[in-house]
Structures are given as structure tokens and as C-alpha cells.
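call fold(seq) -> C-alpha cells
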Amino acid sequence: MKIIAVVPVKRLTGVKQRLASRLSPEERAGLVLRCLGRELDLLAGNPAIQQTLVVTPDAAVGALAEMHGAVALLQVDDGLNQAAQLGVAAARERGATHALILHADLPFVAAGDLAALVAAAGRAGMAIAPDRQGAGTNGLLIPVDAGFDMAYGAGSYARHLESARRSGLRVETVRAAGIAFDLDTPADLLEYRRRMRSSDDRMAAHRLERCPWEVGEERGNAG
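ret:
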């Protein structure tokens, strides 16, 4: 397999609205950029990944992508499904046989998680990594020429399995803890902070001296 990674990233303005009760707009944007930077470094150091494409309508995200050695693709319209399709098409044009689509808010994703996806796709042809609830899709590794229909949004895991069936693809589900954990809700932030007290998780997530979620916790607890 020749794999190119695709990381869709929304416009930073208004990102992570479900965290608005705990983090300011600037803190939410900073959180996304920190997670993205770490993920791009992980992908750049993985020998199974030939290149990484960051699909985004945001110039600041594109600039960060290029700083970390990725290729920034400008997305004219917002939309996760559109971004993923654009990235897969670009990966195909660059000679990839498979595209690895990852969300940008995975603070604990590790090399072993990526290896598990690659191995599963090698066995089945396609691999999918759901979120912790088993409802959403945080990672996909698909053939670029399969005509696979992206179906991100609530309940996307089941819809992506159905898309695979319609495309005639065999698919293997990978329960990868580092891919399953994303930062969407205040409860996720609390869990993140708890895990950061562990030296192993702190090293895995590149400990920050002043984390935006800690600032948000202080503001949220004030008064």
C-alpha cells in the first residue's frame, strides 16, 4: 500500500462549539492547533505514511501544516465530508493507493494505533476506527479508487460500514484507544486533564507548560 494521510480541519473561527462553556474561542483554536501539530509530527515520522495533506479553509491552519512538513489544500467550502473527499481525490492524484483520514483532535493517538489501522487494511482492504462511544468515526483507511461515500456526522460509524458494503469493500474495525479518544465535550477535557497527570500520557501528548483547557477550567470555576 502507498498511503497518504488526509487531515480535515475546520475553520478556527467558532471551532469546538461544544467546549464553549469551558474555553474561550482563542483557547479552543489553540487547543485544535496544538493537537494538530502533534498529530502532523506523528504522521511525518511514520514510515508507512508517504505524505500528509491538511484540507482546510483556514489560512492559519494551512500555515501550521506547512511548518510541520504537510501539504495544505485550500477548501473553498466548509464541510467535513467535502474536505475528506477532496483529500482522497488529491491523494489519488499523487499516486496513493490508500488514504488515511484522521480527525485533528486526537491528543493521544500513537504510532501503535496507526500500525493497527494499516495492518487491518492490509488484511481486509479497508479499516475503520470508531470513537469511544462506537458511534462516530475518528479514523478511516480506504482505497482511493473505491468510490467510497463519506458520511461524517452523528452516527457516522454505522453509515461508513454501510458505505463500505455498498462499495463492495471488506472492512475491519480497529478499537484503537489513541484514535478513539477525541476532545469534543467538557467531560473529554476533564478526562484529558486527569490522564495528563500520568507521566506516560504526558509524554505521549507532549506536555504543555500552560494548557488551554486548564485556563478554561479556572475561568469556568471562577465565581
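The chain has nine helices and seven strands.
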